[in-house]
Design goal:
The structure is a single chain. This protein has 361 residues and is an alpha/beta fold. The chain is 43% helix and 15% strand. It has a nine-stranded mixed sheet with strand order 3-2-1-4-5-6-9-7-8, with helices on both faces. α2 links the parallel β2 and β3.
Length: 361
């Protein structure tokens, strides 16, 4: 399957100390590998806050592009200042440093890319909150010319939304209401995939030292341990067919699932169309953090994936992308600070939240 022109809007954070996840970085390398194989043409990149503040996701994106030898300049977009970051401990973590102001550059760049191409020829892959994409689609000329939006986000099981859609639920509502063809990789689908420490070992053995992904191996190992402590238990309780490895050290490759859903749909055993609505909140966003889902049309989503297929495809793809630029600064002080943030600061913030709840009773 050939995708043609692709625009990437993402929130990478594997190379910054405050980052929550490595999956955006991996998904970016997967897109580059698909481009090297002639499957798509990555024409532009924009950045949003999400897995970290915009000041950090933008710095991460620049480092990642230099590492992979990509000449594109990432366009800055929405910051935490214009979102409703849903998790209290994430807000506390990033309020320590604050965030820069949002920039119009991402929306302007997306709009220009869409209008410069034939109608319906550009796919927008959105791997973070949908703030930038929703703002671009407010232009009816742009909305009428986008080929498809692919979003990692949403929950079609009637339960609480993911970080991406919940961080800017109004933006998710706008994208759904735009009636642009929309493919989503929801929570309950992504939880069927898991990257385990042995997968990282396999990747390192096959790809390193020459591939760009080698600079992410340490972050991948950290993510396995972090997710076991703070993410996986809730996922396993929520998703009946969640990957069994999520009961131990492993992480969900959320954004990789979204990229492969549109690039390699044969990895997914079942597809369905849904009618999705994101009702406005009476008392302000993000309220209960759910959406209304009915059988119908408008939103296309895979509901099942082949066991092991996503991780095998990931390993196969990312080895294709060589490390061209300098290795990012993920050793020394940043790694030390990142380890402290994961092992000490995050638990303390969680404990503070629990204590606050009890005090308020």
């Amino acid at each position: 399957m050939t995708l043609g022109d692709v625009w990437l809007d993402f929130d990478p954070a594997a190379l910054v100390a405050t980052g929550l996840d490595v999956d955006d970085d991996l998904a970016f390398l997967a897109l580059l590998a698909l481009q090297r194989r002639g499957r798509l043409n990555l024409i532009g990149v924009s950045v949003t806050a999400g897995n970290a503040a915009l000041r950090d996701t933008l710095a991460n994106a620049k480092s990642l592009l230099r590492l992979a030898g990509v000449k594109l300049e990432p366009a800055a977009g929405a910051s935490y200042r214009d979102m409703h970051v849903p998790w209290p401990w994430v807000r506390r973590l990033h309020n320590v440093r604050g965030d820069v102001a949002s920039s119009p550059d991402a929306v302007d760049a997306i709009r220009s890319a869409v209008l410069a191409r034939p109608p319906h020829s550009l796919t927008i892959v959105a791997l973070g909150p949908l703030t930038n994409v929703a703002a671009a689609l407010m232009d009816s000329d742009v909305a009428g010319r986008v080929g498809r939006v692919v979003s990692m986000g949403g929950a079609l099981d009637g339960k609480r939304l993911d970080l991406n859609w919940l961080s800017d639920r109004a933006a998710a509502r706008a994208v759904v209401a735009s009636r642009v063809p929309l493919t989503v990789a929801p929570v309950e689908l992504c939880a069927q995939a898991a990257v385990q420490p042995e997968d990282v070992d396999r990747l390192v053995e096959r790809c390193c030292p020459g591939a760009a992904v080698c600079s992410l191996a340490r972050a991948m190992r950290r993510q396995c341990a972090f997710s076991r402590r703070f993410v996986n238990k809730g996922l396993v309780a929520r998703v009946s067919n969640a990957h069994t490895a999520l009961k131990s050290d492993a992480f969900v490759p959320w954004d990789v699932v979204a990229v492969l859903a549109v690039a390699e749909p044969e990895l997914f055993g079942e597809w369905r169309e849904f009618d999705v609505a994101v009702p406005p909140c009476v008392s302000g966003e993000p309220c209960d953090g759910t959406v209304v889902v009915r059988n119908g049309s408008g939103v296309l989503a895979p509901t099942r994936l082949a066991p092991g297929g996503v991780v095998d495809a990931l390993v196969d793809l990312v080895c294709d992308v060589p490390a061209v630029g300098p290795a990012p600064g993920i050793v020394g002080a940043p790694v030390l600070f990142g380890s402290v943030a994961v092992a000490v600061l995050v638990p303390l913030l969680l404990l503070r939240g629990v204590v606050s709840k009890f005090r308020s009773k």
